[in-house]
Amino acid sequence: MMKQLFSSTLLGMIFLLLCASSISGQSLAPAQAPSGSTTTSGQSSPPAQAPSGSSSPSGPADVIAVLTKAGKFTTFIGLLKSSQVDSLINTQLKKPGNGFTVFAPTDSAFSNLKTGTLNSFTDEQKAALTKFHIIPSFLTIAQFQTVSNPVHTSASGDSVEFPLNVIGNGTQVNMTTGLVNTTVDSTAYSDGQLAVYEIPQVLLSQGILRPQAPAPAPLPPKPKKATPLSSQAPSTPTTVSVHSSGATGLPRYAPTVVSIGVAVLAAMSLSL
After folding, report:
1. pLDDT of res. 265
2. Three-class SS string for the chain?
């Protein structure tokens, strides 16, 4: 009887221990789970973080990069660099509100010039040639229909030496400088701030071809003032005795000369 009671008690205790272990394991399970592993049903996972700088707007265009990408403006690129006009354009494009319109002659356009034309230009002429192809404002093809002529270029404000008239008619744009008549072939680039238009001829003007005026020759030195003759006379004046009658006295050696003359005359009379 005691043995059966002991067995029943032992079984009961084992059962209670098993129940307690099961309850303890269930209460600890949520605390051990990773904090981000459980997702609530019906909620979407958060979006991935965007890479740094991916949403920032792109910077201003680089005129050399634009022309290089086109692949047919090598000569014009060289002129922009040698005259440092490219740096001027890129610097101004970084400032809000500034814009440029560039008429870019192709390499074929430069090849069509008279042989040796470009090589005969001075650095000043090359700089003027480059700036003559640039308008310091952004113009679309449609705006050429209402632009005021002659157009002000970066070469000079003198419309006589650097005249450029641009006439738009729909999609057609005609240009004249008085020496060259050409058209815009296509739009190489346009972003609302920089416009690059391809043209088949180089724009020349009288201000570019006319030789530069030589620098004025220096003035000759002023001649030294002539010294008066009176100032060149010896410092010790020669005094001549003057009688009260106003006649000038004979020099001290005059009596000797007279004596010699008398002796000569006496000798001649004796010989006769």
Report:
1. 56
2. CHHHHHHHHHHHHHHHHHHHHHHHHHHHHHHHCCCCCCCCCCCCCCCCCCCCCCCCCCCCCCHHHHHHHHCCCHHHHHHHHHCCHHHHHHHHHCCCCCCEEEEEECHHHHHCCCCCHHHHCCHHHHHHHHHHCEECCCCCCHHHHCCCCCCCCCCCCCCCCCCCEEEEECCEEEEECCCCEEECCEEEEECCCEEEEEECCCCCCHHHHCCCCCCCCCCCCCCCCCCCHHHHCCCCCCCCCECCCCCECCCCCHHHHHHHHHHHHHHHHHHC
